[in-house]
Amino acid sequence: MTATAARPGPTGTGGRAERFARPVLLAFLLVAAADLAGLLAGAETVHLVAKPLLMPLLAGYAALRGAPRLLVAALLFGWGGDVFLLADNDLAFLVGMGSFAVGHVCYLTLFGRGEGRGWAPAPLATGAGYAVVLVVFLVLIWPDLPADLRIPLTGYSLLLTAMAWRAGVFGPYAAAGGALFLLSDALIATGIAEWPQAPAPDFWVMLTYIAAQALLTLGVLTKHRTKHKPGE
């Protein structure tokens, strides 16, 4: 047997698919950089083109890496939310928020399956901390929210906070991703409430959001590939 023949390498459909994963990841990173640079430069057209490409590229990368279907679904529902939130009206905002909510349900279902397979559950102390932060934030922001958005935003915030807490089942990367997702949406809420904003607020929203989805993907892929066959 030659040294070349003895070296393990990717074979079959999975090996061929994984060869495309790195270029797709690179494309995601380039589009993310372009989107963030466009926001800093005030180039709205760049953001309108780049933002809808982000989650399909990340979902494609995850699928090529043999990610669980629920992760791919969560990212694609995030894409739906991204597209609808580009429109500047209340109906599109509610539909986009609903799409993100379905994505969070996909994440929660995935994290629940992790616990069901014997992985360490999310710590109760962390959950209590998230609950305190959520309650304080809602109490503070409630009077400044538009009346017709208070209930939907509260329900969405509960779902998002549960997702952020349970993300810890898939390790520190996913836990950090869940926390950043919560921060990103909190920044959106403060904008809706017309609280004082940092310079270039859309940049910070997108930076935390892109990092959140990327870390959730990394956490799930890292944990999943040590335990299961691709596609489960």
Please provide a written account of the structure:
This protein is mainly alpha-helical and 232 residues long. It is built from 9 helices and no strands. Helix 4 packs antiparallel against helix 5 and helix 5 packs parallel to helix 7. The chain is globular, with a radius of gyration of 19 Å.
Please supply descriptive tags for the structure shown above.
globular; disordered N terminus; 232 residues
Order of helices and strands: HHHHHHHHH
Helix content: over 70%
Radius of gyration from the alpha-carbon trace, in angstroms: 19 Å
| Total beta-strand segments | 0
Characterize the main sheet: none
Summarize the structure.
By secondary structure, the chain is an all-alpha fold. Helices cover 78% and strands 0% of the residues.
Summarize the helices and strands and which ones pair or pack.
Blueprint: H1 3-6, H2 12-41, H3 44-64, H4 69-85, H5 90-116, H6 124-141, H7 150-166, H8 172-192, H9 201-225
